[in-house]
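A note on notation is needed here, since sequence and fold are reported together in a single record. The reader may check this reading against the record printed directly beneath this paragraph.
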Amino acid sequence: MNPRTLKVLEYDKILDKLAGYCSFSGGAELARSLLPSDDLVTVQEALAQTSEASRLLEQKTDVHFGGVTDVRAYLEKSERGAMLFPQELNEVKSTLMRSRSLQQMLTRLENAFPKLAEIAYGIEPCDHVVTEIGRCINDRAEVVDSASPALGRIRAELRVAQERLLSTLDRLVHSGDVKQYLQDALVTQRQGRYVIPVRAEYKGHIEGIVHDQSASGATLFIEPIKVVQQNNAVRELELQEDKEVRRILTELTELVADEAEYIRRNVDVLALLDLIFAKAKYGYALNGTVPEAVSFRPVKSQPHKAKPQHAESQEEEPIHPGSVIDLHDARHPLLDPKQVVPIDFYIDETYYLVVITGPNTGGKTVSLKTVGLLALMAQSGMMIPAEPGSTLSVFEGIYADIGDEQSIEQNLSTFSSHMTNIINVLEEADPRSLVLLDELGAGTDPDEGSALAMALLENLRDRGITTLATTHYSDLKLYAHNTPGVRNASVEFDVQTLRPTYELSIGLPGRSNALTIARRLGLNPVIVDNAERIVRPDTLEADALLEDIKHAKQEAQRAEQRAKERERQAQVVEADLRYQLAAIEETRRDVIAETRETMQAELDEVRGEIEQARRQLSRTGSIGASTHDEFLARAEQQMARRTANREIDRNVHLPNADGEALSGPIEVGDRVWVSSLQASGEVMAIYERSQEADVQLGNFRLKLPLKRLELRQKAPKTEVAAPIRVQGQSAYQSNAKSPGIELDLRGARVEESLDRVESYLDDAYLSRLPWVRIIHGKGTGALREAVRDLLRGHPLVSKYRSGEEGEGGDGVTVAHLVETN
């Protein structure tokens, strides 16, 4: 990747921030040396690793690199034969222990995180190294007595010798003959020997060897003659101890040196994992997402735009390089996230050069840098500060000419500096490159600069190179409007507040607004009018034409937005109708099953009564056969009639069919007559749009047209809401305002979203909605899982499911509410 591009886009600052999220120096070193890749497979692999790390951090909080140290310097030291100290050996041990635990965790989760598990398989546990170091050295970096039998024996003898020596000295300093000459009655050490502090003026009264004196010279530290042999014995044992400790440390160092290749590989793997998890942490801090990296796609030649009237010949159609840039709500990662204005930037199959115009300080350069920097981050396997669904091609080269690099030493002006850089870009760029040019043609005569800028863009267009350029030249706006493969874009400026909005609009040319701004700031109108007369007429005409194009484009975008909204509403209605049809079918099956059960029960009862009558008749031997058969037939008819009457009396109230109908509107709770069924029932619900009503007829609830109902009795006037029936259960009609069947959470954080879902479910339940759709988007899946965890145990939710293909798929959760009691 071009080094100058990395510099002007401040890619090194991104790497510094990334390194700050690494847990140890090995990962930070890898982060600071990270370079974008131009290989599609490599980029996709890196992005997949980052995505898995992000998901894992959302699910598990115990993923860390505590105890890991970059021990590669210790390995080199051991390989040279230099002895490692206990603290260094402990760091080797803790690094190996942490690498082992990470390997065990990631390989156990291989099904969910295969990319991370594949990396973890490269770790060599080196358990014997961990065991041996742990056996010999404790957590305080001390060689323990049990490190070897010889060390245990030497230290036991040393403790006995020290106790004897100290006992002798203690008796000496507390004896009356010596105590009077001492500065303090204590025993201390100097040069590895145990001594007592004697006042200098009494040095001749204590026979012994002087090892040191105080800074003031008032105290001499003397080893009494009577303990010299004991001190010698202690010192000899200390030397033996030191020799044995060094022997043990040397053996441990040799063990580390023997396994240095594997330990170094472990550190390399840990550094890579640390970098991957740092990418995920940095992405979370940016509120970023993992972009989709795609290859250059084959694209057909695009159709011509309308040519200007002065065009003499038909221009050859350009060949689109197939590059893809589709960024949603993209934000510059180095700007304050609370103040930065997101932009949408995209190129489609009809163009691959974008000319961005607009006022100074309006955000043109920031837009340019945002696209370039996000492309670099994506090709480095990093999450980008943009909404889910953002897509980028993997460019083989990214070249930028941004900023003013005047050089007095090299005698380069602003224009010369730009030209030098652009010449280098033109020599290196190809159709697989992305070129970013800021203030193209600036720093020289406007007419010549405009012509040169147009010629440069034409060269890049002919070569099929994806290019983003900023400019103030009106001629380039017209060029972009009239040239195939080129598209205008602009940063907006509010002439009312005299402030830029920093919003980027693709397809709309921008205006510098210099005269308008001068007029609003209070410049003498005579001067402004004179300036307008001086400006070339074709420039004013171009501005007027571009303003008309801008308004037409905005109106088309609004129409497209309205169409999309209508399409979305139609999809919602379609989904609602599908649900209603499914519910109706389910209710129909339930009614049929219930009816069959009821009819079977009644039939069994009638048969029982008939059988009882048969037995009674069989006991009367005096009745003839014909009379017997006639009696059974009449009994069967009577029983069937009695059963039917009992059913009618129990389920359906039959008033006098000749009764008078009442006038007035039919309302919930009224009793009505259904002439086609010759039955009366109670109105449970009314549907104003379809002019239908739910009527309870015995055990059956039917939806009937209002025109087929006759009002026979008004509902009693009470303060209680009118009763309704919901799937056979008593309820009351709620007057709560419906919140709608859809809640959109996209762009909200998890905590805020859960509060909104709680409130929304309450409102939906009170409004008697049977089901709702919660739109959370796909993204990393964190919001989706949080919403579904809430729904899983919510008392108002009976079940939930993912959206179907026409409902939004995994980006939507459909929740069915419990039936109203």
